[in-house]
Amino acid sequence: MVPYAVAMTISGKGPEKHSAQRDFVKLGKQIENVGEVRNDIAIQAFGRLLRGISSFYLGELVAARALLEQDAAPSHPPVDRRDAHFHALRLAAAGLTLAHLGHVDQARSRVDEALSQARRMRSALTLAQMLVYANVLDLATGSPLIHAEELLALSTGQKLAQWQAWATAFRGLALAAAGQAGEAFALLTQSLAQLRAIGAMNGLPRLLVSLARVSARIGQSAEAWRYIAEAARMIEATDERMYEAEVVYEAPGDLLNAAGDLSGAEQYYRQAIAVAERRSAKLSQLRSSIRLARLWHDQGRRAEAHDLLGPVYGWFTEGFDVPILKEARALLDETG
Question: pTM for the whole thing?
């Protein structure tokens, strides 16, 4: 059984929460070494889990997959409730990693299994955390946030402050997708304040860039740039680079595109694609490629748009029913 104090570092709580992500990788390796000395399989697996989640946040997706998949067999989950919680967390984290690597169907299978295990455990805390992962997966693929209301009801009823804050954010993002930018902005700022109040750190750059996008939609472009700048500073301070392509390059490209600076937008989109490609982040690479291809399409550069997007879309072998892949397919048809 893994020590509870160490386990809490994974959820973004406890005295370690402000450490750089690489410190968590080192801590995970130390825990794994202790498990090897004691010949304790559970402690070894926990060390790999901590390393795997930290590697994900670092943007080292291939390494994260190797660490998380090693112990993520969905059959025969542990009997002990605490070990079962970490097994569900391992499944969900592996699923999210697989999604960003472009293996969408495998990702959904992992996250679904994590949700099923959490429901079997009848643990509100475990279920809330798995619902967060399910929502993040839906965000990554551009899918409707079908788990947002369940997470909000559960976290509110059980007074799970961190997960309630994220549920508020997901509801805001759902409203943004429905065109209700003003209401979305209010909920996203509320979520940000709640997370800051409890000292949660993981995922904040992504939340800040969501606020930037919504701010731009309600005509607050200066505020949008401030949110992006804050998110970029946070990435540098924490090493949470999983969403670096979106925060540092894609979102600024969107703001420049909306302002009519097409040359500047193109440069930022190119950088976003390069960063995503370097990290093997196929979904991010596809999303930024769609943006650049759309920009070129609108400029009449249809052949260039098709040549850019075709190979990225052609890499995928699954998940063709999710919105981001449908959008890519439709754009290819327009440029073909």
Answer: 0.91
